[in-house]
Amino acid sequence: MTVRVSHLANGLTVASDTMDTVETVSLGAWVGVGTRHEPAEINGVAHLLEHMAFKGTERRSARDIAEEIEAVGGHLNAYTSRESTAYYAKVLAEDAPLAVDIIADILQHPTFDEEELVRERAVVLQEIGQALDTPDDSIFDRFQETAYPGQAIGRPVLGTSEIVAAIDRATLQGYMNRHYGTDSMVLAAAGKIEHEHFLALVGEAFDSLVRDGTGKPEPASYQGGDYREARELEQVHVLLGFESVSYLDKDYYTTSVLSTLFGGGMSSRLFQEVRERRGLVYSIYSFHSSYHDGGLFGIYAGTGEDEVEELIPVVCDELSKLSAQVAEEEVARARTQLKASLLMSLEHSGARCEQLAQQILIYGRPLAVDEIVGRIEAVDIAGVRRMADRLAAGRPTLASLGPVGRVESFDRVAARFG
Q1: pLDDT tens column, 90-121
Q2: Candidate list 50, 116, 145, 330, residue with the active-site label
Q3: What is the end-to-end Cα distance of the chain in Å, rounded?
Q4: What global pTM score does this model have?
Q5: pLDDT digit string (tens) for 386-395?
Q6: Which of 66, 93, 112, 178 is the most buried (most CB within 10 A)?
Q7: Is there a catalytic annotation at residue 120?
């Protein structure tokens, strides 16, 4: 396993992770811009742009792009998040030049054809509608918006139907021109590829990019609060959360261990107490989402209209007593789960490629596996207790959707903490 990083003269960062035991390569472009970089009036433009990049270039039609990558048995995909957008492919090693060329083409020479835009806007509007019809999906957008009201980081990645329907070709082109430059982009590859070969491919293909002027987004300002939406559903979908830590915080891995032992698997406290012992839910778990300058720790549960009255006090109680009652064996088990997950992911070129790109975007450098494992192993019971107290001392965010009549009031939930 060999990780190398180079910088082209135009400012583009190129990174590779060579794996001698595979016959494929995963590669792509990670751009350090997402929903956080959108003005409110064009919320959703980053995601729509991700779709439109595949809809034709000066050299290829949308069909050409699909046929060329599938003719070699490869696949091409993309995603948008609040802080980054990714375009990536997986192919046989000998087809890496084609994959690099296609990704370079769609990111430098998209045509944003008007007819394709009309069709793709309709597709994205259906995607937004599908998300709204999926309560265990849409509740996360409501939770995010309540935690960060009136801020770009709180707005939905997909945007809203009204805004997306009005985004035109000039808006897409303008957003791309402002943000898709060499300063905010990492080209990464993992698999059967030599660094010098990948560097040469990228240097030749990405010849039209210039340095971009992407500035820092507005700072995240957690507020917290209450959101509840009554719908005729079979279940109440509930999210309870708190302000957490950024990727750069010294307690990032401590929070990962805490989340794992609290609600990260079948042996976790939430699963055992709420589902196994009390039978209040089918699904319950905790998570933490980090950003460059903040983060969220949350607990999701789907439960019945009658059970929600008991569920929320139980969850609050479990979190409140966590610091006093956490055991060393729980911390050790959670550390092992995290290490195993990390090491298992290294068996897949796609995961390694994404990890490499994201580490460079976040930290400015790759993190050695031993360094990450060391940070996980350094988490102790005192750190978990400290982080549990830190979370519970903050103002909560409570979001609920469904038959919400028996959901405990926000004031009563807030009174259980702080």
Answers
A1: 999 999 999 999 999 999 999 999 999 999 99
A2: 50
A3: 47
A4: 0.95
A5: 999 999 999 9
A6: 112
A7: no
